[in-house]
């Protein structure tokens, strides 16, 4: 399968979708891209509120708050596999560069791709809106060949906390080789399908930047070329490594 490779941002900064006061700060920061999060970062009872905040932000004139002078990075949104239709219908905007589909499966990727195409045809999304699937459970890990057949897919990412929980793995020195093996399977699947290099997972330990850089260099050596982050302090580390 041959596809034209997309050059992805080095750094993707997660921002909770229910905290619009953080959106301008993220847009003015150093990250190459922001991910407005409608998944894990948002309590279920605040999901509607978060969708509205993200929609408002994405539909501001010129993709930035009016009069702010802010030049935006790429704008992505993380949506849930079990509720992506409602998420996409709520936040569709030509200012959206792409979506991360959490806990993806082959079926949910194809369904999300079809909806993106429909929204593009209606003029509600820009042509070529990207789709990145997050591998977060054993079922997706064992179905990489099917996942990578989705023609809309740009690449895959890894949600390691959820993946390890599903596999009943403990993060420690003794399991690191096994985890590297799983990461490599995702790198191989993306390369074999002609996709862009996958997106490496973040760390929630925002104070330990030394370890964050060490793990980043390992993931770069394994074949990843981008990484997600949850705090601006991690961005410059990613840029040094990737």
Structure description:
The chain has ten helices and eight strands. It is an alpha/beta fold and about 240 residues long. It has an eight-stranded parallel beta sheet with strand order 6-5-4-3-2-1-8-7.
**How would you spell out the order of helices and strands?**
EHEHEHEHEHHEHHEHEH
Oligomer state equals single chain
Spatial strand order of the main sheet: 6-5-4-3-2-1-8-7
Tally of alpha and pi helices: 10
Helix/strand-derived class? alpha/beta
For the terminal residues, how far apart are their CA atoms? Answer: 26 Å
How many runs of DSSP E, i.e. beta strands?
8
Silhouette:
globular
Q: Which residue ranges are poorly predicted, with pLDDT under 50 across at least 5 consecutive positions?
A: 62-70
Instruction: Give average pLDDT, whole number.
Output: 92
State Rg: 17 Å
Approximately how much helix is present in the residues?
25-40%
Main beta sheet: strand number and arrangement?
8 strands, parallel
Q: How much of the polypeptide forms β-strand, as a percent range?
A: 15-25%
